[in-house]
What we know:
The structure is a homodimer. Chain A is α/β, with parallel strands linked by helices. Chain A is built from 16 helices and 17 strands. Chain A has helices at residues 11-14, 22-33, 47-60, 78-85, 94-106, 113-116, 154-173, 192-199, 230-248, 260-271, 285-291, 309-316, 320-326, 331-345, 392-413, 416-419, and strands at 3-9, 36-43, 63-67, 90-92, 120-122, 126-128, 137-142, 145-150, 179-187, 209-215, 218-227, 252-255, 275-279, 300-306, 349-355, 370-376, 381-387. In chain A, strand 13, helix 11 (285-291) and strand 14 form a beta-alpha-beta unit. In chain A, helix 3 (47-60) packs across helix 4 (78-85). The interface between A and B is large, with 85 and 83 residues.
Amino acid sequence: MLSAEIVSIGTELLLGQITDTDAPFISRRLSALGIAVYHRTTVGDNRERALATVLQALSRADVVILIGGLGPTMDDLTRDIVADATASPLVRDPALVAHLTQWFAVKNYAITDVILRQADVPTGAIPLPNANGTAPGLFLEKENKIVIALPGPPNELEPMFDAEVLPLLTTRTGTESAVIQSRTVRVVGMGESDAEALIADLMNDANPTVAPYAKLAEVHLRVTSRAATALEADALNAERAAIIRERLGDVVYGEDDTTLENAVVALLKSRRETVAVAESCTGGMLAGRITNVSGSSEVFGVGLVTYANDAKITLLQIPRAVIGGVGAVSPEVAKAMASRVRELSGATYGLSTTGVAGPGGGSDAKPVGLVHIGLSTPTETISVERYFPGGRADVRYRATQAALDLLRRELLKTGMAERV
Amino acid sequence: MLSAEIVSIGTELLLGQITDTDAPFISRRLSALGIAVYHRTTVGDNRERALATVLQALSRADVVILIGGLGPTMDDLTRDIVADATASPLVRDPALVAHLTQWFAVKNYAITDVILRQADVPTGAIPLPNANGTAPGLFLEKENKIVIALPGPPNELEPMFDAEVLPLLTTRTGTESAVIQSRTVRVVGMGESDAEALIADLMNDANPTVAPYAKLAEVHLRVTSRAATALEADALNAERAAIIRERLGDVVYGEDDTTLENAVVALLKSRRETVAVAESCTGGMLAGRITNVSGSSEVFGVGLVTYANDAKITLLQIPRAVIGGVGAVSPEVAKAMASRVRELSGATYGLSTTGVAGPGGGSDAKPVGLVHIGLSTPTETISVERYFPGGRADVRYRATQAALDLLRRELLKTGMAERV
């Protein structure tokens, strides 16, 4: 299997003035080609250090991809570095001279010697046409090593890689080429370490690999397989994902880009059911997440943000005495909000949140992070009490996550027929 | 002058599944401290390669900063690598054990041995408190080298660097160290290039520097000053920010962490006024943004998400004939939504959104991205028509941004006394 190393050249990268999106782009392309990347390095516009970095890369990788420093200015060193690192002296390419001359004529710019430096090519290198700029890329194969140099601007680098570099690389990867494919299993309602405990053995496997990533109020398990073809890699991923689903059970709500709100909306659609929400502490975020799903209008029509107690009383007709008695943050009010919004909307389900998002408003009895979530179904109205860690934004988000998951579990629990 | 090298550890980085924003952040901080960065390297979750990379970094830099791999899971190798690279065996820190135990108790999660690995500290290292997660950072000084390990999630790494690492580093940089302070001027309703044109001259200055950053539906101008003391740097920033405000006018809505919803809530509070919202295409996101502001209950009590036409008719009493005639996405309906929610909530202002978020639902007459925003005040009800670019999520967010800015400009325009 071929290995590659990516070297990004540019002082502005080292100063953090630019975030490098080129290297991740190329990394994704290379892994799709089955080319392994073990090191990625960034150096400044310093000839000595850049050269040393490229030589080190050549010593440990089959393919070295240089990003940036191909422009015409003084600090654009990449052309010289490729020449030095591979002992391939620069020669001026007449075709490139003609191309540059014409390009500048069209733009009515004067062509200068500085600009023509972009026509200098290391001996034996193939210049790669640049559809969106003046600086050509370089592809040089020498002594079983491949050196590729690409311009830094993403709008130049990305099309150049796909149009020029990919075809050249695929011919080299040949039979030893493998494809890497990933899929992400998404988990809600179980912590990272609990999830890991259930799949610890799988995490020792080299192919497929399984790696957990803790996200806010959910965990992602990334399964990555290497195989000869994308189809085989996908099959390995599917098989491994199935095992994970079996181990973890219904805390797995979806895969890849499926968000929890996607999963809930899909379940409601499949059941031809609808949900309405009444929100206090989440203040619209729950409705906002549901309606962020394209096509959610099929399953969602009404949301009430009853942030003030008066709104709970006037919009939801929750008796003032109830709120005065047990308080707005209570199972009683959560249930009343859910059942009332269900009634007045005519939705299949009513979902509600009421809690103390903080930073203020907490008490010993009702600390910041306490949230009651209400769910009203055609047969019952329940509420759950949760204590969420984190700041106001985290508590609010966790509350929407818990509310969506409460509904999701209800939708998994019973078929419509059993109930209606 | 001290030199530093940054080593990012994570296979997901090498696969390009994540773009590294931590390294640029740290690069900016280090350059602000006058610490030179000559190399930045990314390696995967591979003990051997990661260790070799750290040893190489130690051989050529005074300070080595490791990012990522500090979590509890098996592929989190950084703690071991720091121990090996510096010959500082891991010892379990009782204080960290206590902290972790308590943190998990709050979350009602069971504490496991896996989690407690995060309490292992290389001999002689200072554990760095993590305000937003469980994994502590590490600061180890040994044989004139400094090794720092930080967690990968930006919301953990950035505050940890500023609160814990900066003070420790500044004492080492000694007289070379100048203090760097930044402040961000936040702009809404003006594009990056228009804003740039008004401050082009300021962007050439070396101290303070001014750098524009285009964000979704707003522009941030980061002013950074270097001075002997934080006070002096702040003064330089304040002076430069004042010039920018004067040049740009009321498109500047706030500074630093002040969001547009923060600014609107503050204006409403200062005027002792309130707002209610009626949302269609933004589906709760507008209320969600307002209520994300701590203390927003003083100025916000009611939000209606009338996503379905029936909800507009039943909850807002918008005549079916109006919706049938001009359609739900129209100035008429935007105005009706704003004035009706204002009436039934008793709020000072009613704010509404109705539009085509896409990807479906567009037509020649009403393309995806068309949004009407309604604002009802004590004296008038108006609507504005906007066409937003981007996907569904962008259109929805831009709509909330435009609605908040429409209200903000109204609040700036007139004093209460003039109107009530």
